[in-house]
Structure formats: structure tokens, C-alpha cells
């Protein structure tokens, strides 16, 4: 998921583009680039890996003079994170330049055909083939026709913004299929971008392109065409958005946006290829799963599920792995890491020198991918909030795909939607918890890793002390803390552990503790001061997801009620690269 922005008008293109890139950064942030036409036939292209702020100031983007240009923030999909693979991409002549979001599925064939015709490629990306194909087509036909022909030859998904330095007009050429692209209609100036927020500073009037649209944007206006070249009319919309909110796609915090995004991203995660990982897991009897933070809770779940299939699987906190385990050739090591850069995980991976390694990771081209024999991508899109939410759900989805197969997970997106639909109830529960100083989260069996994760998220962003216990452990110590009004959140789906958990609920209530539950059981509901409901008929294999989605949202709302910014909890960082 990357971000695109284009500008044509009387203004300084480099300024508008750099500004827009900063607003698009949440979409992807491993590399960034800009191209501006500085004169007839001349382009100034600057790009590198890194964050927008650092690359744009190091390469002095805004010093480029010119009124027509485009920019891109990249979240790598094809090819490593490096300068060459950063967008925009030029053709052989250096006159045609473009930025692309999406995946060109037939890029290999196009690349081979063009290479046979003498085209030289500078990157490993699928995107670069588009500029060369455009160049090839432009040899025999006018620019717009050549662009349309090029788009017709592409298979896959794309949002494309292109321009030619030798064009007689100042214009941007756009195309959209399965990847968003919006035209921004200014006064005497025009923009285009992957989303509205990137353009809000300049206009409130927009034209969202539709699937298959091709468009030409000049300083004074725009024209939209269908694939057959006929003109199409597209509706303009006017938004009344506050710029700050809009940066987060209309949400007050990235964390909330990321929680809400899960209904979409979980499907992307389920589409990931797990075949090689599955084959390796089948071959090994001893499997060590290492991770840190939230990913460790996913590791626990993975280990529990593998143990149930008879495997010798164990989850390890990455930083402790070298002090405990002796991995050898007969050990399969699985690392789970959203960022792929957590130092504790990397050192544990390096420690397991003799073992085959699988990485479950969200970030393309991250360090862990270079240390692994097999990489499974989570496809959850970039996560900005420090507290991992959607990447955790995506990790669970990928683990479930490995264990149960994709067919069994058909209802997952609907289930997430149903749980998120209880937001008002969740907010009410947050109001009850926001004034407390402590909380316990209880779950048994497979629900314990979810209790662990729920408690972890709750404490890290609310600053309320909280602990998770397997229900059976309560009576061995922590029960002494339970007194009048003490809040205990029980993760109580109707599974084989519920009967025993019910006993724990009674223990808590007998001491004046207050039970809040996530459940689909009528008796648990009756015992609860407040309950969030798992839809009746939910497939038991999806219970962990039904539990964690509302509990992440509960942590979020409790945090906000306590006046904390959940996106940036004190003392914590998104990616921890020190041991
Ligand atoms: C940091 C983050 C956590 C995250 C952990 C592991 O501590 O604040 O949210 O779970 O790192 O990150 P990883 O990228 O390896 O999953």
C-alpha cells in the first residue's frame, strides 16, 4: 500500500507534492521520491529509501523549480527497499516518468518482451515495466493514445500517475484499477492523490476515479475516459473535513483507524501464501516460536494450536531465547514480527544458526526476511499506531490459515464487523473501567493468549495496572487482590473450557469482584455486570478473533477517556531496534 500525489498549476509543484507526501506517509513509508518537470524535455527526479521527512530534506525536494510533477511514498511489495526500487520510475530515455500503486501481475512477460527489444531496467519492481511499455507505445502513437494502450496491456491492480517531459502540454496522465486515485479540483490548479487528505490543504472538491478510468489532468481541468477511449462523466464531491482528522482518514487516531481497517485487511492476510510454511511445519516435530510484545501473544496461540496437533511446539519471548533454548538442525524456528526489525527477535534468529527459519512478518524487505528460509507476509498494510492491533489480528488469521486451511475462515471479516458494531457498548464499558486502578483479564486454554494480549494492550495505553491469568491460576495467588468492586474481564466463549471458567467467575463474585465478559453464553451474561456479545453460531475456531477485536477497542476507548493519546503511549516505540 503506497501513496501517490501529482500536481499541475501555477504553484511550486515540489512544495505541494512534498506536503502531500507527508500526509500520505501513513500508507507506506520505506522509500519516497519526487519528479518535477523543470523545463521542456527536462525532469528533476530525486528519491531514496527512508521516511518522507528525512529523504525530502536530505535531497532538498522543495528547492526544485517547476509547475508539473508527481511524488510517491513506497511500502515495498516487489523488490527490496533501496533507492533503485523507490518510485518514480523512468523509461530508457528518462523523459517519461511515473508512480504506481498496486501489483502488475503480468510484469514478468512485459519485462522479458521489452528487454528483448533492448529496454534496460534500473529496478526490480513490477512498476518500472509500465514506463518502458509506455515509452515503447509512444514511439508509434500520440502520447494519450500510447498511455491508453499501455493501460490496456496491464493485468493486475494499479493507480498510476505519469507525465512526459517532452509533452507539448503541462499534463498528468492517470489510470485506476483496484487501487484508489482521486482528482483534486483547485482554482486554476489541479491535483491527484491516493486519498483526499493529501490534497485537503489545496481544495475541498474532488473527483474519485472509478475502476478502469483513465484521466488527463491539466491546470484548467480534467477529462475522464473509459478503456475504449470514449469520454465519461464523473461526479464531483465536496468534503467538509478538518485537515488534522483527515490525515488519519477521518479517524481521531491511527489506532482506531487500524482497528476499523481490520474487516478489509484480514482478507488480504488470508490471501497470503502459506504453502511453503505448511510444508516445513509438517516436516518438523520440534518447533520453537519466538517473538516480542504483542507478537509473542500470537506466538503463544500458534504454539498452543500446534501442540494440539501433537507437535513439540513452544513459544519463547525472543529476548530470553538464547538463555533457554538449544535449537539444532532438527528444530524449526518460527519468528513472528510485525516490523521484522525488532532487535530481540533478530538476535534470537541469528542465535538459531543451525535451524531452518520461517518469518511471519508484515514489512516487506525487513531484516528478518533476509535471515529466513521462508517468509510469510501478513499483508496487513502499514500500521502507524504504536500499539499493534490489525497486525495482531492478521497474524492470527495467517496462523489459522496454516492450521485449519482458508476455507474454514470464510466468516472472519463478517465476525470482525459484528464485534466492531458493538462500539457503543464498548465505550460504555470503557467508562466503567476508566476510573479503576487495576484490572484482571481471565481466560482458559486457547483464550489465555487473548487475555494476555487484551491485558497488555489495556495497560500499555491506559496506564491502568492490569494482569492476565489463566482462570485456573487465580486461586493460586492473584485472588487475594480481588475485593469489592475489583474489575475482572472474562474471555468466556462457549468452548470446552467454559465450565471451569464459570467456577472462576463465581470465585471472583464471592469476593465482591465485578465481572465484565465477552461471551456467547447466557449464564455468563447473567453473571456479568456488563457483557459484549459474540454472535450466536460463531465458528469456535474464530473465537480468539471475536475476543480480541472488541478488547483492543476497549483499550482504545479507555485510553481516550483518560486523556491519553493511544497512538503514542509514553516510553514506548513502534519498532524497538535495541536489545
Ligand atoms: C514494540 C511495540 C509493540 C510490538 C513489539 C514487537 O514493543 O511497541 O507493539 O508488539 O515491539 O514488535 P514486532 O514488530 O516485532 O512485532
Strand order of the largest sheet: 3-2-4-1-10-9-11-15
Rounded to an integer, what's the Rg over CA atoms?
Answer: 26 Å
CATH superfamily of the largest domain: Aminohydrolase, N-terminal nucleophile (Ntn) domain
Output the structural class: alpha/beta
Q: What kind of assembly state do the chains in view correspond to?
A: single chain
Spatial shape = globular
CATH architecture of the largest domain: 4-Layer Sandwich
Count of helical stretches:
20
Structure description:
- The protein has 579 residues and is an alpha/beta fold.
- It has three domains: 3-245, Glutamine Phosphoribosylpyrophosphate, subunit 1, domain 1, CATH 3.60.20.10; 249-410, Rossmann fold; 421-566, Glucose-6-phosphate isomerase like protein, domain 1 (Rossmann fold).
- Helices cover 35% and strands 23% of the residues.
- It contains 20 helices and 25 strands.
- The strands form four sheets. The protein has an eight-stranded antiparallel sheet, covered by helices on one side.
- β18, α12 (343-351) and β19 form a beta-alpha-beta unit.
- α8 runs parallel beside α14 (390-404).
- The longest helix has 19 residues, at 543-561.
- The chain is globular.
- The two termini are 30 Å apart.
- The model has no long low-confidence stretch (mean pLDDT 93).
- Bound molecules: 6-O-phosphono-alpha-D-glucopyranose (G6P).
- 6-O-phosphono-alpha-D-glucopyranose (G6P) is lined by residues 292-295, 337-339, 342, 345, 386-388, 572-576.
Features:
Glutamine Phosphoribosylpyrophosphate, subunit 1, domain 1, globular, 8-stranded antiparallel β-sheet, 579 residues, alpha/beta, binds 6-O-phosphono-alpha-D-glucopyranose, Rossmann fold, 7-stranded antiparallel β-sheet
